[in-house]
Amino acid sequence: MGVEVVSRGRSVPRIARGYVGSAVLAAGVAVLPALRPGAATPWATVLPLAALYAACELPARCPRLRRAYANGEDGRGRLPACLGAGSFFPVLLAAALLLPPSAAALTAVPGALLAPVDEPPVALRRLWRAARLVLAVWASARVGQFLPCHDALGPGLVVPDFPYVLLPSGATALAFSLALTALDGGIRATVEAVPPYAAWRGLLGRSLAPHAVHTLAGLMMAVLWRSDYGPVAAVFVLLPVSVSCWAFAQYHRERAAHQATIRALVQAVDIKDSYTRGHSERVGRASVLIAEELGMPEPRLEVVRFAGVLHDVGKLGVPTRVLSKDGPLTPEERRIIELHPEYGHEMVRGIGFLGEARSAILHHHEHLDGSGYPYGLKGDQIPEYARVVAVADAFDAMTSTRSYRRARPVEAALAELERCAGTQFDPHMVAALARALERHGWQTEVTADETAVPTPRPPEPAGPRPAEPVPPGSVPGPGPGPASGSVPGPASGTSASGPDAPETPEAPSAAAPDPASLQEERA
Predict the structure, then answer these.
(1) Residue 503: CA atoms inside 13 Å, Cβ hemisphere, count?
(2) How far apart are CA 457 and CA 362, in angstroms?
(3) Closest CA to 361 of 405, 423, 317, 406
């Protein structure tokens, strides 16, 4: 748990090293009173609690356990947060309730120093981890001493002073959370050079609930520790904590497997049709922006992201010669392209964790007026996730820069979405995307090889150029784009093939539809 000292692949800035050094110095000052000769430090309580906390952190050093997570979300064998340093906060919070501040702070040192470190600089990370926990435990014990929590717990009381003891114990949890939030926000600000409001945003809210649960377990430990049953009984409180950590670890492994599955499918699509590399990830991101604006809960946000990322997985079943064809598509080739939603649905039908995302993969080319494919659904017959992905897909197709043409500005893309709202797109989804972009903005990226050079055209004879015949029902293919520096003009009226034509970029012809006509890309 906690904020990492340095981002992956980057050295630690000097200001961050100074920040960590200051935290280590402050931690040393905090524990110094307990280490002075003649100090009345209750070592009979400090040492067992310190050993218990260190023992709780030792499983994370197990090589077999680390190998089990070698295929985690980042592929680097990182352990889930529940198995890292700081997982067993009830021990530390029990120390804060039972001991003076300096003595309580000492209990965090062995476990923090023994816990594994995944990335260099190892020594700096260990020092930071120990310093932040020492300072957090010291602050919470200081608050508990001030209220005073120690008197409510004993010694000498046969029964703790309930419910009064809940107030100081809750205050210690709040102090613990505030201290960790302050320290973690500071390290984010110094390492990542983010503004203060961004460095601390959300840290406290995410930590309060788990720390409150840990405080209750720590209070139970403290009560049993002071009772006639003694420290041995207090250790049993950690059993449910251990079980919950094990369950969370299993969830983490399952989620990591899900992410690996998604990543493999997306990479397969990108490899097959690389000129729209990154399109799937951006559609997933735009889908989440729309879903957040609609107020979807967190579990549904993950599913809608899966739907956006995998919406074109059916392209794996489309022949490469069709996807990469240089020129207009024949009616037969267009029918093959239009089968990709069904191919995609068949591919992911057995992946249970995708849930409603599977229906979005099948129906993201349906239109509100029934003119879409594969089944011509209308209005509310189209699943909600499919309506979200349809808007996100069309938006990214218009705003992505390709090697053969420039991206459409975000404002123009939104205007085209609004023009087609009610016929092709759900107006609520379009409005939600507009609000989300106004709040968060949108960063377009080049999704094809930026160094690509358009195929040179032979010299053309002077005079007007005759219009090139296009077979009925055919769709322009991804031929060489306009010359560098040229920008396609706006489309007049609605595209002949409709905003949801099979995902093909513009042909080099002057009559080719503009991106603003929502002519979607092949991937």
Answers:
(1) 27
(2) 39
(3) 317
Using one digit for the tens of pLDDT, what is the confidence trace for 378-415?
988 999 999 999 999 999 988 886 554 677 889 999 99
CB 166 within 8 A of CB 215: no
Taking the C-alpha atoms of residue 135 and residue 130, their distance in angstroms, rounded to an integer, is: 9
- What residues form DSSP beta bridges with 405? 402
pLDDT digits (tens, 9 = 90+) for 100-149: 999 999 999 998 888 777 778 888 988 999 999 999 999 999 998 887 76
**Contact (CB, 8 A) for 384 and 364:** no
Residue 12 region, left (φ>0) first, then alpha (ψ -120 to 50), else beta? beta
Give which of 516, 269, 267, 271 is closest to 394, Cα–Cα: 516
The runs of H, that is alpha helices, within 193-293 are 196-200, 203-226, 230-235, 238-272, 279-293
Between the alpha carbon of residue 148 and those of residues 29, 168, 336, the distances in Å are 23, 7, 75
Q: Check: CB of residue 497 under 8 Å from CB of residue 337.
A: no
Copy the structure tokens of residue 253: 């492994």
